[in-house]
Q: What sequence folds into this?
C-alpha cells in the first residue's frame, strides 16, 4: 500500500532553513545561487534520503531560493526527499534545484512539475535539465516528450524546456536532446544551439505571404524529412503544404512524395535536398534545384507557349516536357535516366544533350559527358527503388516495411538555430551551429 503525500512528508529529512532572497533579485541570479548551493550539497553526506518500504525516492530538493516553494501544498524544505507523484509548485520569487542521482533539474519561478521515477512531468513554467547519467533524463509535457542524454563523447547534456499553455520551447544548451511532439513518429535531435518550438494551438506554424505562394502538398512520407523555410526548420508530416522557396531535406531513411498543384508528382529519395524555387501551375512555369541526392518526377505535359519545367543541378539544367525521369546528384556529378518522354539537358558549358526514353546520361563535375546510352536493368531498378515512397527502406537484416502513414499532427514542430542566451538565463551558449546536414535532418 503506497503512502499518501502527507505521510511521506513526515519521513522526509529537511534542513532547518529555507534560503530567502530579496524580491528584486533576478531569476538569473537566483539560479546561479542554486547552482552554487547544489555543488555544496553534492559534497555533503549529512543529508540522507528517508526511504519508505512502499516507494523508493526519486530525487531530493538540493537547494531552494525564496519563500514560496511548495511540495504537495506544504512548504518544501531544503533536503526534502522527493517521491514519484510529488507535486512541486514555485511562486513568483522562488526557484529550486532538484537532484536525480547524476542529473540536476533547475526550476524557475512560476513552475509546476510532478516528480517521476526517471524524470519529471512539466505542467507549466521553465526548467533546465543537466543530465549526467547513462540513461536520458525524461521531461514529459502534455503534448511532447524530451529526452536529455549524455553526448556521444560521454559529456553531460543540458537542455531548457519552457511550457506556457499549449506552446512549448526546447533549447539544447550543451550536448543533445531528443524531442518528440504529439503526432510525430520519430524524435527530432536538437544539438547545442538549436531551439524547437512546439505549437499545439492549431495555429499555422509559419504563416505564408503572397511572396511565397503554395506549390504543392506532401502526400506520402517516410520519416524523417524536414522543410527549411527561411530561418525555420519544420519537421514534415503528411498533408503539409509546400511553398515557393521551400527546401525539402531528407535524412538517411527519409523520403517524401510531393504532389504539385499542376498534378506533377515528385519523389524525393533519402539523403537528398530539393528546393522548390518556383511553381506557377497556371502559367506552367516551374523551377527546382536538386542540390544533392535522388529524385524522380512524373511531370504533367506542358502545352502553353513559353512553358517550362526545369530541374537545376550543380552540373547543368534538365528541361522536361511531360516526362517520367530520375536524377541523381553526388560529388562526382549527375546521372539522368528517362523512363518516358524526352529530357533536354544543358551543361554549364552550354552543351545541350537530348535524352530519350530508355537512356542514361552521366555528366561529370568536370563537365565531361558520358552517353546517352541505353539504361541497364540494374540502373533502372536502383533509380526506382531508391525513390519509391510506397514502402519504407529495408532495415539491416530485415525486410522492407510499410510507410508510416499517420494523420496530420496538430502540433507543428518548428526548429530554429540560435546563438542567444539560454531561455531562463542558465548556461549561456556562445556561438551557433551550422544548419543541419543532409544526412542528419
A:
Amino acid at each position: 500500500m503506497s503512502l499518501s503525500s502527507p505521510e511521506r512528508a513526515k519521513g522526509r529529512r529537511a534542513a532547518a532553513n529555507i534560503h530567502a532572497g530579496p524580491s528584486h533579485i533576478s531569476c538569473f541570479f537566483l539560479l546561479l545561487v542554486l547552482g552554487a548551493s547544489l555543488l555544496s550539497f553534492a559534497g555533503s553526506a549529512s543529508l540522507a534520503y528517508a526511504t519508505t518500504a512502499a516507494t523508493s525516492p526519486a530525487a531530493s530538493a538540493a537547494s531552494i531560493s525564496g519563500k514560496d516553494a511548495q511540495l504537495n501544498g506544504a512548504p518544501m524544505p531544503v533536503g526534502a526527499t522527493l517521491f514519484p507523484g510529488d507535486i512541486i509548485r514555485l511562486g513568483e520569487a522562488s526557484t529550486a534545484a532538484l537532484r536525480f542521482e547524476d542529473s540536476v533539474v533547475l526550476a524557475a519561478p512560476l513552475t509546476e512539475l510532478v516528480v517521476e521515477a526517471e524524470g519529471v512531468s512539466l505542467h507549466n513554467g521553465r526548467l533546465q535539465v543537466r543530465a549526467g547519467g547513462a540513461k536520458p533524463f525524461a521531461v514529459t509535457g502534455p503534448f511532447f516528450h524530451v529526452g536529455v542524454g549524455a553526448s556521444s563523447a560521454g559529456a553531460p547534456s543540458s537542455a531548457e524546456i519552457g511550457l506556457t499553455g499549449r506552446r512549448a520551447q526546447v533549447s539544447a544548451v550543451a550536448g543533445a536532446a531528443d524531442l518528440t511532439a504529439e503526432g510525430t513518429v520519430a524524435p527530432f535531435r536538437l544539438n547545442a544551439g538549436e531551439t524547437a518550438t512546439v505549437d499545439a494551438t492549431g495555429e499555422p506554424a509559419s504563416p505564408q505571404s503572397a511572396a511565397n505562394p503554395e506549390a504543392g502538398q506532401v502526400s506520402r512520407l517516410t520519416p524523417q524529412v524536414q522543410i527549411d523555410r527561411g530561418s525555420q526548420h519544420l519537421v514534415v508530416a503528411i498533408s503539409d503544404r509546400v511553398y515557393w522557396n521551400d527546401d525539402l531535406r531528407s535524412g538517411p531513411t527519409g523520403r517524401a512524395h510531393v504532389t504539385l498543384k499542376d498534378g506533377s508528382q515528385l519523389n524525393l529519395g533519402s539523403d537528398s535536398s530539393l528546393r522548390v524555387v518556383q511553381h506557377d501551375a497556371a502559367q506552367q512555369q516551374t523551377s527546382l534545384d536538386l542540390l544533392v541526392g535522388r529524385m524522380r518526377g512524373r511531370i504533367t505535359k506542358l502545352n502553353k507557349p513559353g512553358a517550362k519545367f526545369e530541374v537545376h543541378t550543380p552540373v547543368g539544367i534538365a528541361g522536361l516536357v511531360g516526362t517520367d525521369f530520375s536524377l541523381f546528384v553526388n560529388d562526382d556529378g549527375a546521372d539522368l535516366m528517362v523512363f518516358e518522354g524526352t529530357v533536354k539537358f544543358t551543361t554549364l558549358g552550354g552543351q545541350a544533350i537530348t535524352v530519350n526514353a530508355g537512356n542514361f546520361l552521366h555528366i561529370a563535375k568536370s563537365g565531361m559527358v558520358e552517353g546517352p546510352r541505353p539504361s541497364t536493368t540494374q540502373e533502372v531498378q536502383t533509380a526506382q527503388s531508391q525513390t519509391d515512397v510506397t514502402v519504407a527502406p529495408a532495415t539491416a537484416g530485415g525486410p522492407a516495411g510499410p510507410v508510416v502513414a499517420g494523420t496530420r499532427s496538430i502540433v507543428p514542430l518548428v526548429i530554429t538555430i540560435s546563438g542567444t542566451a539560454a531561455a531562463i538565463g542558465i548556461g549561456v551558449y556562445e556561438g551557433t551551429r551550422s544548419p543541419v546536414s543532409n544526412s542528419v535532418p
The first strand starts at residue 59 and ends at 65.
